[in-house]
Each structure stands twice: as structure tokens, then as C-alpha cells.
Write a structure and sequence with these properties.
This protein has 248 residues and is an alpha+beta fold. Helix content is 25%, strand content 40%. The longest helix has 41 residues. It starts with a helix and ends in a 17-residue tail after the last strand.
């Protein structure tokens, strides 16, 4: 009986040691694999930082055939011509081969600094404005317009909210910098050009996103904007989820 007890204890200790080694090995290997994939997909050099954080037990998820509780952040990544942003991905669980299985709790986010907000601002204002900045959780946009025989700097404050996968744009202020003009006078003098800045509207952005990505949140910060998306479980295993979405 005592010998049997000793054998059981030895087995438990041995399994514990192996588990520790397995966890250690997985935590060394998985971040390297993720970094390689990210660098290849984005076309960035191997020296470019790719931060990988793993929570929970890597071994337990590995036994189940996947990677669990993982977060990946890639700062200063090229996302469009001349535009760089911080890319963020997280998932509660992802299969070792995401092309053949579903993810759980997968999300993505992009943080764009104010200096690179031009394309986003143009989309949100139908190209009406030509400059923008962030302030107190809101987007402040501007444009030089010819009105009443003068070149008038126009400045509008917009609130942005994610609603049912679309962007709710809410005008919160409009002024002619340095001129004592009311909103009605501005609207009249510009012949309807400022209409996109004068009334709340919901903007569909699905055609700008993969079908499997749904806009979930927009946060305007002091130095830029963070846009968050929920990803479909089969986002990486179903090619149709990676095709452009549609509006209407």
C-alpha cells in the first residue's frame, strides 16, 4: 500500500514537471510563430516589434488543439498608402491551424494617430473637410471655404459612435473661425455643401471591411482614434468572411 502511494506521488510529480516544461516550451514557441506570420502578412522586417501576450495555461489549450487567451499588438504597422497604425488582435481561443477551425471571442482593433486620420475623416464627412484633429473624445474637422466674398475657415465638432455595426455621426458644433456667422448663415452661404456636418446620420462602413468583421466600438482619444471590431469565429477558416462586406 505504501509502495503504491509512493508510485502515485512519483507519477503526479513527474506529470507536474512535464507540464511545467510543456508550458515553458509552448510559451517560447507560440509567440515566435505568431510574430513570423504577422511579419510575413504585413511585409514588415523581422526587427519590427510584434508583442504577444499569453494568459492562462498554454498547455491546457494545446492539449485541446489550440492557443488560448492570446493578445497580439503591432505598433506602427503600414495599413494603407502613407498611413501607419497600431494593430491589435485578441482571442479567447484559436486553433493551431486557424484555416481549419473556429476561433472563440476573437476581436481586432486599429489605433490611428491624429496625423493619419485623413482617409477616415474624408469618409465620415463625404469629403467635405480637408483637416482634422481629436479633442475631448470628439473629432474636430475643418476646411477653408469661399463664403460671402471671403475665405472662411470652417470648424465642426463631430461625435462618433458604433451602432449596429455602423457609424453614427453626430454634429455637436459648427463655427466660422474668426467670423460672427450663425449655422443657418453658413449653410445658406455654402449652398448645401455643409449638409453632412449639420445633421446626425448613420454611415454604413461594411463595404470597407471584411464580411466577417463587425464594427463594435469607436473611441476618440487625445492623440488619435481607436476602432474595434468583433470577428466571426470562422474569419480565418472561411474565405467568404474575408471578402469585402456590402451595404444595403
Amino acid at each position: 500500500m505504501r509502495r503504491a502511494l509512493k508510485i502515485v506521488i512519483a507519477l503526479v510529480v513527474t506529470v507536474g514537471v512535464l507540464a511545467g516544461l510543456g508550458e515553458w516550451g509552448l510559451r517560447l514557441a507560440i509567440p515566435g510563430v505568431v510574430k513570423t506570420i504577422a511579419q510575413e502578412q504585413l511585409g514588415i522586417p523581422s526587427s519590427h516589434p510584434v508583442e504577444v501576450d499569453m494568459g492562462g495555461s498554454a498547455l491546457l489549450h494545446a492539449i485541446g488543439g489550440g492557443v488560448g487567451d492570446i493578445a497580439v499588438e503591432i505598433p506602427d504597422a503600414p495599413v494603407a498608402d502613407g498611413v501607419r497604425a497600431t494593430l491589435i488582435f485578441s482571442a479567447d481561443r484559436s486553433p493551431f491551424d486557424p484555416s481549419k477551425g473556429d476561433m472563440t471571442g476573437a476581436t481586432a482593433a486599429i489605433y490611428v494617430p491624429t496625423a493619419d486620420l485623413g482617409p477616415m475623416i474624408s469618409l465620415l464627412t463625404n469629403g467635405v473637410v480637408d483637416s482634422g484633429k481629436t479633442s475631448s473624445g470628439e473629432l474636430v474637422v475643418g476646411r477653408q471655404l469661399e463664403a460671402l466674398g471671403f475665405t472662411v475657415p470652417i470648424e465642426a465638432t463631430l461625435g462618433l459612435t458604433a451602432v449596429d455595426g455602423e457609424v453614427l455621426v453626430e454634429p455637436r458644433g459648427l463655427s466660422a473661425v474668426g467670423f460672427d456667422l450663425s449655422v443657418d448663415q453658413l449653410a445658406s452661404a455654402t449652398g448645401g455643401l455643409l449638409d453632412p456636418l449639420l445633421s446626425a446620420r448613420q454611415l454604413c462602413v461594411r463595404e470597407w471591411l471584411p464580411a466577417g468583421a463587425t464594427l463594435s466600438d469607436i473611441r476618440i482619444t487625445k492623440n488619435g482614434a481607436r476602432v474595434e471590431f468583433a470577428l466571426a469565429p470562422d474569419f480565418l477558416s472561411n474565405p467568404q468572411q474575408q471578402e469585402p462586406g456590402t451595404c444595403g
